[in-house]
């Protein structure tokens, strides 16, 4: 996200969450927050606590966000990529968007079936001799267990809605969520083990070398320090260098796809 | 397969799924896209895109990359004064935080620097670091800044040792190099995955010191104590560089001369002052006492060249017999205002710009402040004994209101005063390192103007002798100044200051002293050529 895109992002973010846009010009946005947004963003719990105690209607704040360099001097919050405020908004999106049950939008006026897919988006983090992230998006067809990688990228441009469209009916899943999650876990682990031997070996060597150094140190030394110290050091080395892969969930959800798309997904996997 | 796969997220997902509310497609998709944007690549510095206001100098960028990629997050940052070690540490910390490898951080710095670290981390790096407050326990902090002096005391020490930190940063880490001190013993026990030690002087006296710093950062890298000592001795004979190569594995040391940055110019001017006859008479009288005790004499001479007050204090607390003492004290009381001080005030007036005055003596500091005030010049004082808040306040005052900051050397380390570009050395320090430390306060990263340095020197006194003996020759080792400490240690010299004091004391003529100093300096600058890569710019 570059500096020019931030304004658009902000407008979209606040508009979508029902804040009142009071001023919207290039790189400068003044919004009146809703009560919910105020509580989440403005960090004034006491205010809201008192208001509630007194049984009154609180007054959400108006905030000005500036994202254009030339307007930096004006009164308001300067927002850039990496600023804590923007991070806070990102976190809200992550929090809100971690689960979904959605139906593919379709305009046909014939009766049609929608097929259940479980989609799971993960950040796979390799950590050892280096740190590297990989984005993995997997879909599991909950009827026969077909698995599809890069799922999200396939459907990113499509439209989904929260309520089942007219004339559509759901095919009930045969495979449970939990089973799907298990399958995903197994498959990912398998793939990680298959392709990360270079990473593993590199990290392992580094880890072992560092460990030997410590070992040697404590073997030859009689003068000071204890087992505790050695244990601390070994732990530190393990944390930094031992090859580890962390599966971090971004979000997941139950998606009902039209028959065509569902077939298409199965064919290209 | 020995790889460990941490899949707690997926494990717990099965249980929690029923509690989740469905979001809309737009938000779900946005969460995915934002995550994609925040992916880390193994060779790139992810955090820099979060810090658009920060521009790193090339040596800083190199240092950061090296610490992260080759040293795996444990290192000694030993750049020379003013090259921005704090910035390097900040970027490394930020990167590890962005990558989610670090959450809980302990930062131990001299108490005078706590506030500065706090501000720097918050403003430059958007890292929510806070200084330790007495009413909150250590475990309540994610990113905590404190002083080592507080931290090592009970009950704090045992509380800290119970914590598992992700990162430990220690500024001015040369305070750790004596293994017998509480500082060292304490720090060694702190549990932390990543660790940065910052010091401009990794070796001050003996090469052993680097051993102890290293044993905190990478225990075992230099072997055990005995084999290390043996190797050092052996290397001296064989002219090998094995130890240096090892040290470089975990230490970054950039020198001013290596950096590509264009440093602003440094102009040095000496201002000569004459004692009044009355003062000179008293000075001569001190000189004639030489026979009794040369050390005291030298001290008193240096003091009277600074202020009557400094000299008076020493005599008052001396163990001389009362008559003599009272006589001397009375004589001092008769003296007029100090010539050098008057000249300095006059000079500050004509300067009409912010300036820092450094003095060696507290009494002089107070006297100067009074004298400036009599002349309508607002000044603030600064010394190491001030509380943190008072120091902050003084610097703020200096920045916004006062024309002059009068400082003693103590407590000066780490101060950033680059908004000022005049510095007056009211007393000349006898140790060139000290001079460099002082000048580094203003001649550092961020200084945009040429820097003006002034020496105040009293004609025909010890001031002038030192100027001739030492300062005129400083050019000889201006390239060495950063590594002076390390060269001295290799020569077995504990303190350059004492060495020079001895020369001045023991030489029977000016000529002899001059020759001795010449010899000392040529040894030092020769060593420079031979020894300069012990901890050289990292390969």
UniProtKB/TrEMBL annotation, chain B:
SMART domains named among the record's database cross-references: DEXDc, HELICc
A GO molecular-function descriptor: hydrolase activity
Regions that span the bilayer: none
CDD domains the UniProt entry points to: DEXDc_RapA, SF2_C_SNF
Domain Helicase C-terminal: 343-504
Keywords of the record: ATP-binding, Helicase, Hydrolase, Nucleotide-binding
UniProt KW Glycosyltransferase keyword: no
InterPro entries, per the entry: DEXDc_RapA, Helicase_ATP-bd, Helicase_C-like, P-loop_NTPase, SNF2-like_sf, SNF2/RAD54-like_C, SNF2_N
Protein name per its UniProtKB record: DEAD/DEAH box helicase
PANTHER family reported for this sequence: SNF2/RAD54 HELICASE FAMILY (PTHR10799)
Pfam family, one: SNF2-rel_dom
């Amino acid at each position: 996200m570059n500096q020019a895109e931030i304004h658009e992002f902000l407008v979209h973010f606040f508009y979508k969450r029902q804040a009142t846009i009071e001023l919207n010009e290039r790189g400068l946005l003044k919004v009146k927050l809703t009560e919910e947004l105020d509580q989440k963003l403005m960090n004034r719990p006491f205010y809201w606590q008192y208001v509630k105690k007194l049984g009154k209607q609180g007054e959400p704040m108006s905030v000005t966000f500036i994202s254009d360099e030339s307007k930096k001097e004006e009164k308001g919050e300067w927002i850039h990529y990496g600023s804590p405020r923007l991070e806070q908004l990102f976190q809200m999106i992550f929090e809100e968007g971690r689960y979904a049950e959605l139906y593919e939008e379709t305009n046909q006026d014939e009766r049609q079936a929608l097929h259940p897919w479980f989609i799971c988006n993960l950040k796979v983090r390799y950590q050892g001799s280096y740190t590297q992230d990989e984005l993995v998006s997997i879909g599991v067809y909950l009827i026969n267990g077909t698995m599809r990688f890069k799922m999200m990228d396939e459907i990113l441009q499509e439209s989904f809605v929260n309520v089942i469209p007219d004339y559509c009916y759901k095919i009930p899943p045969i495979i449970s969520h939990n089973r799907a999650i298990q399958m995903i876990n197994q498959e990912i682990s398998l793939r990680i083990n298959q392709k990360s031997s270079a990473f593993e070996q590199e990290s392992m060597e580094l880890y072992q070398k560092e460990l030997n150094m410590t070992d040697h140190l404590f073997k030859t030394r009689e003068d000071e320090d204890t087992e505790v110290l050695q244990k601390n050091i070994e732990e530190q080395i393990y944390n930094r260098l031992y090859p580890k892969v962390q599966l971090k969930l971004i979000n997941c959800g139950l998606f009902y796809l039209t028959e065509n798309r569902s077939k298409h997904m199965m064919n290209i996997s | 397969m020995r790889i460990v796969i941490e899949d707690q997220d997926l494990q717990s997902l099965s249980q929690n799924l029923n509690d989740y509310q469905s979001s809309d497609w737009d938000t779900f998709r946005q969460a995915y896209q934002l995550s994609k944007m925040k992916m880390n690549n193994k060779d790139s510095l992810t955090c820099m895109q979060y810090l658009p206001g920060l521009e790193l100098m090339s040596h800083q960028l190199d240092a950061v990359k090296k610490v992260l990629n080759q040293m795996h997050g444990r290192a000694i940052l030993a750049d020379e004064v003013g090259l921005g070690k704090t910035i390097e540490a900040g970027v490394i910390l930020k990167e590890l935080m962005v990558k989610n490898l670090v959450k809980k951080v302990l930062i131990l710095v001299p108490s005078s620097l706590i506030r500065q670290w706090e501000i720097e981390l918050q403003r430059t790096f958007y890292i929510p670091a806070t200084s330790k407050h007495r009413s909150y326990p250590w475990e309540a902090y994610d990113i905590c800044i404190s002083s080592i002096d507080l931290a090592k005391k009970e009950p704090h020490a045992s509380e800290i040792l119970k914590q598992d930190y992700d990162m430990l940063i220690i500024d001015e880490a040369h305070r750790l190099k004596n293994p017998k001190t509480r500082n060292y013993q304490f720090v060694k026990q702190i549990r932390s995955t990543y660790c940065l030690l910052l010091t401009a002087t990794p070796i001050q006296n003996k090469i052993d010191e680097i051993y102890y710093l290293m044993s905190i950062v990478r225990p075992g890298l230099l072997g055990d104590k005995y084999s290390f000592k043996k190797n050092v001795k052996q290397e001296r004979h064989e002219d090998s560089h094995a130890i240096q190569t090892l040290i470089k594995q975990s230490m970054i040391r950039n020198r001013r001369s290596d950096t590509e940055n264009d440093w602003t110019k440094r102009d040095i001017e000496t201002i000569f002052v004459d004692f009044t006859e009355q003062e000179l008479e008293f000075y001569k009288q001190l000189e004639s006492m030489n026979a009794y005790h040369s050390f005291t004499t030298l001290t008193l001479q240096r003091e009277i060249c600074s202020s009557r007050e400094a000299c008076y204090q020493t005599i008052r607390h001396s163990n001389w017999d009362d008559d003599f003492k009272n006589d001397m004290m009375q004589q001092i009381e008769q003296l007029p205002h100090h010539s050098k001080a008057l000249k300095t005030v006059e000079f500050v007036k004509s300067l009409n710009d912010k300036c820092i005055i450094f003095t060696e003596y507290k009494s002089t500091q107070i006297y100067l402040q009074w004298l400036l005030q009599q002349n309508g010049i607002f000044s603030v004082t600064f010394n190491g004994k001030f509380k943190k808040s008072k120091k902050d306040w003084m610097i703020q005052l200096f920045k916004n209101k006062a024309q002059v900051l009068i400082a003693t050397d103590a407590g000066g380390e780490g101060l950033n005063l680059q908004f000022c570009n005049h510095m007056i050395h009211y007393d000349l320090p006898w140790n060139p390192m000290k001079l460099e430390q002082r000048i580094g306060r203003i001649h550092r990263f961020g200084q945009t103007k040429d820097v003006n340095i002034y020496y105040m020197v009293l004609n025909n006194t010890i001031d002038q002798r030192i100027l001739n003996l030492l300062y005129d020759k400083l050019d000889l080792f201006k390239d060495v100044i950063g590594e002076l400490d390390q060269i001295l240690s290799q020569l077995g010299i504990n303190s350059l200051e004492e060495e020079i004091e001895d020369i001045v004391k023991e030489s029977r003529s000016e000529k002899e002293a001059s020759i001795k100093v010449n010899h000392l300096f040529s040894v030092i600058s020769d060593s420079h050529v031979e020894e300069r890569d012990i901890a050289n710019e990292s390969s």
